[in-house]
TrEMBL record:
It comes from the Bacteria. Residues 231-323 form the Cytochrome c domain. Belongs to the cytochrome c oxidase subunit 2 family. GO terms for molecular function: copper ion binding; cytochrome-c oxidase activity; heme binding. The chain crosses the membrane at residues 37-61, 73-98. This is Cytochrome c oxidase subunit 2. It comes from Cereibacter azotoformans. One of its GO terms (cellular component) is membrane. The keyword Nuclease does not apply.
Length: 323
């Protein structure tokens, strides 16, 4: 008995302990996520009060010898608890819920970001006001704090869903359609997002980091991101072009101009590899290039296992230097 109770207690504690972290709705750092948390907290408290009241009523009735409650109490329960309370509470919650929705679709201020769900990675294009063309990046979203940014969502061949729980709600990505949402990050930091709609073999391996920067830092970053790469000469570069990597990947400032895979222009400056599932480290990058499909099933990136250890290392080093 005591053991069972302890086990249940531990289970609840460990569950509650898992509620925080970069991918948690409870680690809210965006205006919309904070608003949603408030709504959730009120609903949770309400549900707890309701649960306790109903149990109280249940005990009250079952402990009575006559086996039924007084007529007066029964009427109060049916009219008050069964009709009035739900109508008032649900109407208030509906009104509140509807009132916070328009914010999450509100137009941004200046910057737009277009995110396209691919298999299984994210194409990210920044469209600053008045710019000639988009600044293309991949697998990481950077946003300025204190400003609302409009996010246009698209999808390649199959449906996906964009969700960074710490910043705001979730919105589906549908092939052939553009869906819209906006985010207003408040606290700088790194938040993790995850594809939230089953999209194939590697759905679970489709994540991204959303990095929120102070306004000035963001402007500097975007300027650097818009600039072409400054690739080093050497064997790594030779291997990249010999193996035909440029047919799928773009590195602005070099002849590599493929659009099938992620843009690698400033690859080395990103916080993660392979759409948020590997650390940006040499060993991880080497195993990814050698056999991406072994890490991410059905990924379109072919295996380059025929390259020698030294060649893989040179290639990885060259890519890492693209900052
Ligand atoms: Cu993309 Cu699930």
């Amino acid at each position: 008995r005591r053991g069972q109770r302890a086990a249940v207690g531990l289970l609840i504690l460990s569950g509650a302990g898992g509620c925080h972290g970069p991918q948690s709705v409870f680690s809210a750092g965006g205006a919309d996520a904070i608003e949603l948390n408030r709504l959730f907290a009120v609903m949770l408290v309400g549900a707890v009060i309701l649960w306790i009241s109903l149990n109280g009523l249940f005990f009250h009735v079952t402990r009575r010898r006559t086996g039924h409650m007084s007529r007066k109490l029964a009427e109060a329960v049916i009219i008050g608890g069964g009709i009035l309370l739900p109508v008032v509470v649900l109407t208030a919650l509906l009104a509140w819920g509807l009132s916070i929705m328009p914010d999450q679709r509100a137009p941004g201020e200046g910057l737009r970001v277009r995110i396209t769900g691919e298999e299984w990675w994210w194409r990210v294009e920044y469209l600053p006001e008045g710019a000639a063309g988009p600044v293309i990046s991949a697998n990481e979203l950077r946003l300025p704090a204190g400003r609302r940014t409009e996010i246009e969502l698209q999808a390649g061949r199959v449906i996906h869903s964009f969700w960074v729980p710490g910043l705001g709600g979730k919105t589906d990505m549908i092939p052939g359609r553009t869906t819209r949402m906006s985010l207003e990050p408040v606290t700088p930091g790194t938040y993790r997002g995850q594809c939230a709609e089953f999209c194939g073999a590697s759905h679970a391996l489709m994540a991204l980091n959303a990095v929120v920067l102070e306004e000035g830092d963001f402007a500097r970053w975007l300027e650097a991101e818009a600039a072409p790469a400054r690739p080093e000469e050497g064997e790594g570069r030779a291997i990249f072009f010999r193996e035909g990597c440029g047919a799928c990947h773009t590195i602005r400032g070099t002849p590599a101009a493929g659009a099938v895979g992620p843009d690698l222009t400033h690859f080395g400056s990103r916080t993660s590899l392979a759409a948020g599932i590997l650390p940006m480290e040499r060993a991880a990058l080497v195993s990814w290039i050698a056999n991406a499909g072994a890490i991410k099933p059905e990924a379109q990136m072919p295996a380059f296992a025929h390259l020698s250890k030294t060649e893989l290392d040179r290639l990885a080093g060259w890519l890492e230097a693209l900052e």
